[in-house]
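Researcher: Quick one. two chains, 230 residues in total.
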Amino acid sequence: AQSVAQPEDQVNVAEGNPLTVKCTYSVSGNPYLFWYVQYPNRGLQFLLKYITGDNLVKGSYGFEAEFNKSQTSFHLKKPSALVSDSALYFCAVRDQAGTALIFGKGTTLSVSS
Amino acid sequence: GAVVSQHPSRVICKSGTSVKIECRSLDFQATTMFWYRQFPKQSLMLMATSNEGSKATYEQGVEKDKFLINHASLTLSTLTVTSAHPEDSSFYICSALRLAGGPGELFFGEGSRLTVL
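Model:
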């Protein structure tokens, strides 16, 4: 069975500092990995995905993530955080084409000015 | 990008009534849609997979008679919460799969907040 772990309930960073939101996964085959962001009472906004190819994936709003097969990780990163990045972030995985996404529990990012 | 529309975005109902939530893929055909439920400050839990023209596949622990799913066309799936009770209050989010070669892409609706009084 596929699963996703986001070990941190909350990440606090100061504006301008780099941020990292951690994610590890478990799937039986090749993983398709995703990051989404959710603002209060809103749906999900797609940030980036890894399907195949380059391990470093660049996405929306300056975010990037690195696929590490040996560590089964897909951490989300941004070089310089903005206050407007404060939101709930979800890592998700699919193990084959056509199946639903399985989500991690989410990490609340709080960026202080 | 592709658009998935959910309606209504918010609904308040009395206990014992039924509520229908619609999920539409506006600019692509989706043979498969997924329904998720999200409790406050928690993750999205997959409820069921909705396949056009066939019965939905429910996840373990989800009552199929409680949460009726219909996927009668390639652009519309509906979730009906029957005889709703306060514990059914939640944020429901749908996702539609657009197949365009490869693993396909999933697009999410804006969600529907159900409050049962």
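The interface with chain A takes residues 1, 6, 32, 34, 36, 41-46, 49, 91, 93, 95, 97, 99, 102-104, 106, 108-111, 113 of chain B (CB under 8 Å).
Researcher: Thanks, that's what I needed.
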